Amino acid sequence: MKLIIGLGNPGSEYERTRHNVGFMAVDAFAQKHGAMNFRVAHQGFMADVLLGGEKLLLLKPQTYMNLSGRSVSSAVAFYKLGLQDLLVIVDDIALPVGTIRLRATGSAGGHNGLRDIERALANLAATEGRTGQAYHRLRIGVDAPGRIPQKDYVLTAFFPAQKTLLERSLSLAVEAAETWATQGIVTAMNRFNASEGEKS
User: Fold this and answer.
1) What is the CATH number of the domain that holds 62?
2) CA–centroid distance for 8 within its chain
3) Taking Cα atoms as reference points, which of 53, 18, 47 lies closest to residue 31?
4) Is the dihedral of CA 85, 183, 21, 110 positive or negative?
5) pLDDT tens digit string along 11-44?
6) What 8-state DSSP symbol labels residue 183?
7) Alpha-carbon Rg of the chain, whole angstroms?
8) How does pLDDT run across 115-155, given as a tens digit for each residue?
C-alpha cells in the first residue's frame, strides 16, 4: 500500500491557486482512475485506487498548508506506512510552469507544508533510522514570484497564458506518480526529471 498526498488549502477561494497544484494533481490522478469518491478521513479527503495490483491511497489534507503534517501523520499511523511509501505532491516556485521534479529525499526548501510534514514524521523516521526528510516528493513548477511577495504570489491563480503549461505539468505529474507507484522512485526520477543533474 502506498500513499499519494497532494498539498493545498481548503476552500473555494484557493481552488485554482498556485499553492493548490498538489490538490489539482491528486484530482487529476483520481479522475483518470475513476476514483472521485473522496471521503472524509484523517483530517482530509481520501480516495482509493488499484493500480497494477497495488492499492494506492490518495489524500488531500484539509488542515491548511502549514499544518499538513497532522493529516499525513494520522494516515501514516493508521495504515502503518513507512516513509518510502509516501509521495507528496507540492508547488515549487523554483521551477517553471510546465515542469516537474521528483526527489527521493531532501529539505523542505522553504515550503511550509513540507516543513510541517517533516516535523510530524520525525518520530516515525527515528524508528526507521532515517530523518523526517526521507519521504518522496514530486514538485510542480509554478514560476518565480518576481516582484510579488511570495506569500501573496502562491495564493493567486495562474495567469491565462500559463494554463496550457499547467495542464501539461499536471498530466506529467499523474504519469510520474503512476510510475512511482508501480516501478519505484528511481525509475520515476530517471524518466521524468528534466536533466541528468536533477536525477539525484
Assistant:
1) 3.40.50.1470
2) 9
3) 47
4) positive
5) 999 999 999 999 999 999 999 999 988 999 999 9
6) H
7) 15
8) 999 999 998 899 999 888 899 999 999 999 989 999 899 99
DSSP 8-class letter at 134: -
The position carrying cell 508547488 is: 91
Euclidean distance between CA atoms 26 and 97, whole angstroms? 17
Q: How far is residue 106's CA from residue 87's CA, in Å, rounded to a whole number?
A: 13
Is residue 23 within 8 A of residue 37, CB to CB? The reply is: no
Q: What's the grid cell of residue 125?
A: 523516521
Question: Domain of 56?
Answer: 2-198
**DSSP 3-state of 178:** helix
19 catalytic, yes or no? yes
Number of domains making up the chain: 1
DSSP letter for 191, please.
H
Check 19, 42, 111, 136 and give the catalytic one: 19
SS3 149: coil
Which residue is associated with the grid cell 495490483? 53
Residue with cell 531532501: 106
Look at the alpha carbons of 120, 126, 132, 137 in this order and tell me if their dihedral is positive or negative: negative
